């Protein structure tokens, strides 16, 4: 196992380039600041239309913006929690685009339920109400953690269960097909990746508030392959890439596990405070980590061609001064640009490669 420091990895096998890889670009204004939630930014690139969509949560509403490549905002839409009983509107917990084989849906989770929209947020195609009957009177009911796996959309809940929705190629005929029981504490995040038909491969990982991870194989019925125990620190964000699980924790560490075995390969002391977001650029294996210490770091993941062991290289560090970062994502699959949101920050910060 290799340990690395964010200020400059000390292990000789982990290099840290001295040149800057990214520079600040034009910001995108927000109507209101991002809420102080982990993973509070979702990005969808639309190359055919030369657009990028951004989704940010603020209290009982979510902002969906589209922007041109130079950052000029073109359109903005406000989404709200579906009305229901209650004195005050419940807060949204996450907004996330799910890219399925035949369509893209925008999924919004809250303390009331799960809402699925067409990709631009114009039409709500499905609503699933959360049943509070399983919760004690002091327990908050909410959904959180969203990922697409094949033609399924998986959503985590406060009870530790993961709801699996079967999504048709078109139309609103969405069905709850399964509930996965693997966690004892609230689900915090879910990640999935296509495995190109490799049988038996792990293609989804779920994380919870105790730091435990569950590794799954998707299909008509999901199968729990392995469970990685927590160590009392919440896992706020998780990613999956080519059999490598990257997990970010409340103590500022990033752990890299083998998805097939659950073995911890590398522990990176990446940040001085809690990690709030991880993201992966799948074409190149770049990992982005963002935390409450105002830093965003970018790492390059790879495997040693001889031993097959996971290797990591620190590529870039960016400070966002005086900001509690709460969301960060790459804006394209090659990792050539990324965006950052922060609490009390009424803009989305953008960074492009030099």
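^ Assign residues to that structure.
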């Amino acid at each position: 196992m290799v340990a690395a420091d964010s200020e400059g990895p000390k292990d000789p096998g982990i290099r840290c380039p001295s040149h800057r890889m990214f520079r600040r670009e034009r910001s995108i204004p927000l109507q209101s600041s991002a809420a102080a939630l982990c993973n509070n930014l979702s990005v969808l690139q639309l190359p055919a239309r030369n657009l990028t969509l951004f989704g940010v949560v603020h209290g009982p509403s979510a902002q969906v913006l589209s922007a041109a490549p130079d950052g000029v905002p073109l359109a903005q839409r406000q989404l709200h929690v579906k009305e229901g009983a209650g004195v005050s509107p419940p807060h949204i917990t996450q907004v996330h685009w799910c890219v399925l084989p035949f369509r893209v849906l925008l999924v919004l989770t809250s303390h009331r339920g799960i809402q699925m929209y067409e990709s631009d947020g114009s039409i709500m195609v499905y609503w699933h109400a959360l049943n509070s009957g399983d919760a004690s009177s002091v327990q908050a009911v909410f959904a959180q953690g969203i990922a697409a796996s094949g033609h399924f959309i998986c959503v985590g809940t406060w009870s530790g269960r993961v709801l699996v929705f079967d999504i048709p190629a078109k139309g609103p005929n969405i069905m709850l097909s399964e509930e996965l029981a693997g966690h004892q504490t609230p689900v915090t995040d879910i990640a999935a990746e296509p495995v190109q038909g490799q049988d038996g491969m792990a293609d989804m990982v779920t994380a919870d508030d105790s730091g435990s991870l569950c590794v799954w194989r998707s299909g008509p019925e999901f199968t729990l392959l392995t469970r990685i125990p927590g160590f009392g620190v919440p896992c706020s964000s998780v990613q999956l890439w080519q059999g490598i699980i990257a997990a970010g924790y409340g103590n500022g560490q990033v752990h890299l596990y083998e998805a097939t075995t659950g073995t911890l390969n590398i522990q990176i002391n990446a940040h001085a405070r809690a990690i709030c977001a991880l993201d992966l650029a799948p074409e190149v294996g770049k990992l982005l980590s963002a935390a409450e210490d105002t830093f965003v770091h970018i790492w390059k993941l790879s495997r040693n061609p001889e031993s097959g062991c996971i290797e990591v290289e620190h590529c870039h560090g960016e400070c966002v001064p005086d900001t509690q970062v709460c969301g960060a994502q790459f804006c394209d699959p090659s990792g050539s640009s990324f965006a950052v949101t922060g609490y009390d920050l009424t803009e989305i910060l953008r960074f492009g490669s030099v």
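The radius of gyration is 19 Å.
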